[in-house]
Write a structure and sequence with these properties.
The complex is a heterotrimer of chains A (about 500), B (about 130) and C (about 425). By secondary structure, chain A is α/β, with parallel strands linked by helices. Chain A has 2 domains: about 250 residues, Aspartate Aminotransferase, domain 2, CATH 3.40.640.10; about 120 residues, Aspartate Aminotransferase, domain 1 (Alpha-Beta Complex), CATH 3.90.1150. Chain A contains 15 helices and 12 strands. In chain A, strands 1-7-6-5-4-2-3 form a 7-stranded mixed β-sheet, with helices on both faces. In chain A, strands 10-12-11 form a 3-stranded antiparallel β-sheet, covered by helices on one side. In chain A, strands 8-9 form a two-stranded antiparallel sheet. In chain A, α5 packs parallel to α10. In chain B, the strands form 2 sheets. A 6-stranded antiparallel β-sheet of chain B has the order 1-2-3-9-8-5. In chain B, strands 4-6-7 form a 3-stranded antiparallel β-sheet. With about 130 residues, chain B is an alpha+beta fold. Helix content of chain B is about 20%, strand content about 35%. Chain C has 2 domains: about 110 residues, Aspartate Aminotransferase, domain 1, CATH 3.90.1150.10; about 250 residues, Aspartate Aminotransferase, domain 2, CATH 3.40.640.10. Chain C has 12 helices and 12 strands. In chain C, α6 crosses α7. In chain C, about 60% of the residues are buried. The chains are: A alpha/beta (about 500), B alpha+beta (about 130), C alpha/beta (about 425). At the A-C interface, α2, α3, α4, α5 and α6 of A face α1, α2, α3, α4 and α5 of C.
């Protein structure tokens, strides 16, 4: 990524490369007699799509791809995203025509292999999390979260209970409060204590019989295991409320503990984080939901079950909240996650969490002298530092992040969680070697020195990326959101 | 210590109003614009809209946050600063001058007594009660 | 053997544990209540790579994929041609293994392709702005209705009865969370009040036929309701785009644009709107800007709408989009271009009409619905559709969707550019045999 500056590709899009008459593939002639077309007032006159030859199209997108940082290219330690390596054999398997060419509505007897895969994946995920039933339908983590809260709501309504509040820790991801609003609940924050655990006093103060559920991320967004978890579960259940786990950080716990054993009633997990399916630049993912038996009848439809004769079929839970997706979820993603679980087995999953946690603690040990560690505890799979020490020299976490690019690394997550000032959230994952972690630490230490001695290097960073710092304020003030002939 | 202009009054939510001949010009304080960072958008009422003192007036969006705006006075909106729609950054640069947001025909000038003087507002900031 | 995805060796681990200052990795998990540590996981033993291939190939072989047979099943998921360039580009690790482009300087590949996608969607739909995609057509439609409710402050959503039943189902699930009322209306019987936030229609409708979209636009406008059109993107290669007949929002299922059937997902939600909705639109949006040296580049923008800043004030909780799938659609639209998409649409139209005419001429078969259709149409069969489909399957053909719960002995047939004349003639012959 370092070297002479390349000219920007940003000024020329496919529309600019287009020439009338070009095309990048071929289509057959019509082999049936032409029917009469509808009257012209129903038809469109212009269709301004670009026209490119195949070589130009391939070259354009290939060169664009070179501008991307990716896991395949380098270390990508985004906290809470679990940027682990994406196994290539999964790509082959997901593309098998026997999977990729299945129509979602084709008769169940012609899709038994696919239904078996979904059924086994449901069971495996239930086993891993220590829950009773799994729904594979949600299309993403936030979707799984919404599904979970709607399921809780349906359960409580069925029992004749009218509860209006959901508790969310102050360290929570933004989807948590957004989800509660979408579900018709109001959201109350619960403070964390100085050790990064849920403050039990604060919890007791807001817990009452109007609380439907408490949402927890475990480990939390500080990468810490809430030492109060068993007491929290007790307190929440005492008031007849339910305990939800945002499973974004499940990578820390695979094979180490079952979330169901800790008292969770419902949880969501991310196949595109913990279970190695690729992030794709921002999707697609999948966000399965796992519940204890009392919530199972309320899960979305459809579920994969077995008929009395042993055949697999789609079924609708008795009091289902209904559909969350037009068909039954992101099957292509399920194939990859299933292949991952089958290739690791129980022991392999345990190795994943163990190595993920060792790697994060190694970074903690190596960087704690140079960067402020707000919670001085063992972390799990990710560690949160604060750039506050560097800010005293006039350099922000933002600048540290941009400077890391010059060293060939993708920055960690910055400015999240909100309860840490100038937060830097680093999640290495288990798929990184000690050499990579050492190189990263060297870079971070060099940057800490630069912050003291040459802060302008940070403030002007990145110097070696395909582009320098971009003007995000103007993009938000005067948005240009599509190509137009005029704005070349 | 902040040195807020003495010719105007302030709310606890960091808005100011400059009242002249029954019309109040309203804006946000220097402290507010600094806290917000780069401002990108204002959601403000149209001329003709009625507002109430301390009720929500609209929203201000910056790169990192969305904040509610509260009206320092009751009355009818008579004018909205056209510059603010095209170049919201003027509020960052000159919050007390060119960065004014709107003008309100005052329903009750006595309401100004419910607001803070510049000294009281600055004292609040100094005590860390600002947000 | 070692796990190929975990580089650290025993030696590496020992060195790291020493730096950390613990004797064994187990100490790092000390916060987990001891009575729950190290549970037994009842999972099958691990498979090596060749064994994994064999196992999953066997599962795949246990299916008879419709996409590889003469297939006449549509109803929201379609067997369309996917040019080879699509898979080639989305298989590139630089696209597939990148994250959401929050650090724009090193994510211009993803950002520029999103900007392309947004631009292409606007051209296709005739609208002003598009987001970077949503989960699927159903969630896009739902989000459009939620946005209309937020913008108008009204509490009722009107839908035509001719919308895909699964889309209506998804909307109802979300609406229950927000206490929005859903009113379903017959196309000829649309009555909107001042309480309706929007009118949503599907074009072509679930049965494949064109609605009177101009008249419906007028009804929405007269009631102050927002007009939401769920369009078939392939049909937009031929038919007038909704932007030209008054749509406030256009949504679509983008699976037809270079995405395989995949047994139902991942698919692609398309969401495009008029300029005035740009700050209320859900989902990620990319904008163009410059870097400190004046070079053109792209960034995620208008992020203050989104959940990670607005939190409980957000109108949606959506975080992921379907980026790699949107990239597939982008490559598809660039590969086919103006000529190609039009040709695909025409092929669907002519072939579907050829098939419909031939089937209607068979004794016992008829076309119960009137109107202009595109690539899907309804056939009334002499025998129950379930029986007909079973017989077709025996002949190696996937028949249409059984609609007998709504139209007596009705079947929804779909014909695309992938159905050769031979396949269509084969279907007609089979239906004739089965019907006699």
């Amino acid at each position: 990524m370092s070297g002479p500056q390349r000219p920007s590709m940003g000024a020329r899009l496919s529309f600019d490369l287009s020439r009338p008459g070009r095309i990048a593939t071929t289509l057959p002639q019509c082999d049936v007699p032409s029917a009469e077309l509808p009257p012209p007032d129903l038809l469109r006159e212009e269709l301004n799509l670009p026209e490119l030859s195949q070589p130009d199209l391939i070259r354009y997108f290939t060169n664009l791809s070179h501008l991307n940082f990716s896991v395949d290219g380098g270390f990508y330690p985004l906290g809470s995203c679990t940027m682990k390596y994406n196994p290539k054999v999964h790509e082959e398997l997901a593309r098998l025509p026997g999977f990729a060419q299945l129509h979602p509505l084709q008769p169940a007897e012609t899709a038994q292999g696919a239904l078996a895969l979904m059924y086994e994946l449901q069971r495996s995920l239930a086993e891993i999390t220590g829950m009773d039933t799994v729904s594979l339908t949600p299309a993403a983590g936030a979707h799984g979260e919404l599904t979970s809260i709607l399921t809780v709501k349906a359960y409580l309504e069925y029992k004749g209970e009218s509860r209006h509040k959901v508790l969310v820790p102050d360290s929570a991801h933004g989807t948590n409060p957004a989800t509660t609003a979408l579900s018709g609940f109001s959201c109350l924050p619960v403070a964390s204590d100085a050790q990064g655990n849920t403050d039990l006093g604060a919890l007791a103060a807001v817990l009452d019989e109007d609380v439907a559920a408490m949402m927890l991320t475990l480990p939390n967004t500080l990468g810490l295991f809430d030492q109060n978890i068993l007491r929290i579960a007790e307190m929440v259940h005492e008031k007849g409320a339910l305990l939800y786990c945002d499973g974004a950080n499940l990578n820390a716990l695979l094979g180490q503990v079952k979330l169901g054993d800790l008292g969770f009633d419902v949880l969501q997990m991310n196949l595109h984080k913990t279970f190695s399916t690729p992030h794709g630049g921002g999707g697609p993912g999948a966000g399965p939901v796992a519940v204890k038996a009392h919530l199972a009848p309320f899960l979305p439809s459809p579920q994969v079950g077995r008929e009395p004769d042993g055949r697999y079929a789609f079924q609708t839970p008795e009091h289902s909240i209904g559909r969350m997706v037009p068909f039954h979820g992101n099957f292509g993603i399920m194939v990859r996650a299933y292949a991952y679980i089958r290739s690791l087995g129980a022991e392999g999953l345990r190795e994943v969490s163990e190595n993920a946690v060792i790697n994060a603690n190694y970074l903690l040990a190596c960087l704690r002298d140079a960067y402020h560690l707000p919670y001085d505890r063992r972390c799990l799979h990710e560690v949160v530092f604060s750039g506050s020490r560097q800010r005293a020299k006039g350099v922000h976490t933002y600048d540290v992040a941009k400077r890391l690019m010059d060293y060939g690394f993708h920055p960690p997550t910055v400015y999240f969680p909100l309860i840490v000032d100038e937060a830097l959230m680093i999640e290495p994952t288990e798929t990184e070697s000690k050499e990579t972690l050492d190189a990263f630490c060297e870079a971070m230490l060099a940057i800490a020195r630069e912050a003291e001695e040459e802060p302008e290097l940070l403030r002007g960073a990145p110097h070696n990326a395909p582009l320098r710092r971009l003007d995000e304020a103007t993009a938000a003030r005067r948005p240009v959101l599509r190509w137009r002939k005029e704005n070349r | 210590m902040a040195n807020s202009p003495k010719d105007r009054r302030y709310t606890r939510e960091d808005e100011w109003v400059l009242a002249v001949d029954g019309e109040g010009t309203v804006g946000i304080t220097d402290f507010a614009q600094e806290q917000l960072g780069d401002i990108v958008y204002f959601d403000l009422p149209e001329p003709g809209a009625r507002v109430r003192q301390f009720a929500k007036l609209g929203e201000v969006e910056s790169m990192k946050a969305v904040s509610d705006l509260f009206s320092p006075v009751s009355g009818e909106v008579s004018e909205v600063n056209p510059q603010v729609a095209d170049s919201p950054e003027v509020v960052n640069k000159d919050p007390y001058g060119a960065g004014w947001l709107l003008k309100i025909k005052l329903a009750d000038p006595a309401e100004l007594d419910n607001l803070l003087s510049a000294e009281d507002y600055d004292a609040r900031l100094a005590e860390g009660e600002g947000h | 053997m070692s796990n190929p995805y975990i580089p650290n060796t025993e030696e590496d681990r020992r060195a790291m544990l020493a730096t950390i200052g613990v004797g064994a990795a187990g100490e790092l998990f000390a916060d987990i209540p001891s009575q729950h540590r190290n549970p037994a996981l009842n999972l099958p033993p691990p498979l090596s790579e060749p064994e994994l291939r064999r196992e999953l190939s066997q599962m795949a072989a246990g299916n008879r994929p419709a996409g590889e047979m003469p297939c006449f099943l549509g109803a929201g998921a379609y067997r369309h041609f996917i040019p080879s360039v699509v898979n080639h580009i989305i298989s590139r690790g630089e696209f597939a293994t990148a994250y959401t482009p929050y650090q724009p300087e090193i994510s211009q590949g993803t950002l520029q392709t999103i900007f392309e996608f947004q631009s292409l969607v606007c051209e296709l739909t005739g609208m002003d702005v598009s987001n970077a995609s949503m989960y699927d057509g159903a969630s896009a439609l739902t989000e459009a209705c939620l946005m209309a409710a937020a913008v108008t402050g009204r509490g009722r959503v009107a839908l035509l009865s001719t919308i895909h039943p699964h889309y209506e189902a998804v909307l109802r699930t979300y609406a229950a969370g927000r206490k929005l009322a859903v009113d379903v209306m017959e196309p000829r019987d649309v009555a909107l009040s001042a309480e309706h936030a929007c009118l949503a229609v599907q074009q072509p409708d679930f049965f494949g036929y064109l609605e009177d979209v101009t008249a419906l636009a007028e009804k929405a406008r007269a009631a102050g309701a927002r007009y939401i059109v769920a369009a078939d993107p392939i049909s937009l290669g031929l038919f007038r785009p909704p932007g030209e007949y008054g749509a406030d929002v256009v949504v679509a299922e983008g699976q037809s644009l270079g995405i395989p059937l995949s047994f139902g997902g991942p698919y692609l939600g398309i969401f495009a709107a008029r300029e005035k909705y740009v700050r209320q639109m859900p989902g990620r949006i990319v904008g163009r800007t410059t870097d400190s040296e004046g070079r053109a580049g792209y960034v995620l923008t208008l992020q203050t709408r989104e959940q990670h800043i607005r939190r409980e004030r957000a109108t949606s909780n959506i975080c992921s989009n379907e980026q790699l799938v949107a990239l597939a659609a982008t490559v598809y639209l660039c590969a086919l271009g103006r000529q190609g998409l039009r040709r695909v649409a025409e092929l669907c139209y002519h072939k579907a009409h050829y098939a419909a005419e031939a089937i209607a001429a068979l004794p016992g078969y008829s076309l119960p619905l009137e109107g202009t259709f595109f690539k899907e149409f309804v056939v009334r069969c002499p025998r129950p559709p379930e029986e007909t489909n079973a017989a077709l399957l025996e002949r190696g053909i996937i028949g249409g969707l059984d609609l007998s719960d709504r139209i007596e002995k009705g079947m929804l047939l779909c014909v695309t550019e992938m159905n050769s004349r031979q396949e269509i003639d084969g279907l007609v012959t089979a239906l004739k045999e089965v019907g006699s």
